[in-house]
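Hi F.,

I've been meaning to write this up properly since the lab meeting, where we talked about keeping a consistent format for the predictions we share between groups. The idea is simple: the sequence comes first, exactly as it goes in, then the structure tokens exactly as they come out, then a line or two of notes. No screenshots and no reformatting. I'm using this chain as the first example so we have something concrete to point to.
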Amino acid sequence: MPNSADVHPRCGIGLRAALRAAYNEMMPFRRLALPILVLCLMSGAMSSCIARRRLIPRAGNTKALSVADLPTLLAAIQKQYAAIHDFSATVDMVPALGSTEKNHITEYKDVRAYIRFRKPSGIRLIGLMPVVRSKMFDMVSDGADFKLYIPTKNRFIVGRNAIEQLSPNKLENLRPQHFLDALMVRPIDSKTDKVMMENFTDEDNAYYIIHEVRELADGQLQLRRTIWFSRLDLLIARQMIFDETGNVLTDARYSQWHPYDNVPFPKHIEINRPRDEYAMVLDMVKMDINKGVPDDQFVLDQPEGTTLQTIGQPPAKGPQK
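Output, unedited:
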């Protein structure tokens, strides 16, 4: 016979049995309430704990990135190139001779240089030695041929712009055309080359990259150039020029764009020629654009008493005029 404490006073059923029945009736609600409670706690903490807004600074800039398409960027290259007919520049230059692959680089600080350019391909560069300001090198090119005078070697070098064999003397590997290719980013010829655009944007980078590709006679594709636009301002930030096997010929980087005579031009340019084992950093001191450059600025005669060397041939014996 059941204990009186276990008997319900009204219905006469056992108290433990009544509690057990009530507990079983509440179990579905308890199972449902637990996930709801967890969701409520997650929702309350979402803004402060689980989800967090984070700014992504790129070179100290947190403004929204610009958006552009391929035709817009191709037009920007064409516009920049067409805006400059000639210029005269005074620059602070840091030449570096050697290569990272050979673990040996020699830098020359405090080199003042003068650059003259006139379309289509005329360029002249004169570099002065640090401190004493005597002439370090003088070179000129018409686009196909070049002349290079190195006073410290008492040598006058002439030849084609193309380098067929590297010289142990890194200064002899300098070519005016290499500078021109870096200073003036040429438009892409849509008749001979194909283009495609890459959006290279992540936590650290924000660039549009234009790939210039040429299809060869056998159907193979050859990467010729990449032109990088910063998505912070849609200005050219980098240009890489490749040889026929895909190795880097020129790696040029541009920054601190500034209007000179109402034409934008980078104040800071870094030019790296890894295969030729030299590099240059240029900082514009003075820049005159489209004010005319006379013909005599592109004339470089062999100084009396220097040794003439034609690229591909050994130096001539004895001084020549």
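Notes:
The domain at 70-310 is CATH 2.50.20.10 (outer membrane lipoprotein receptor (LolB), chain A).
The chain has two domains: 4-50, 70-310.

If this format works for you, I'll send the rest the same way.

G.
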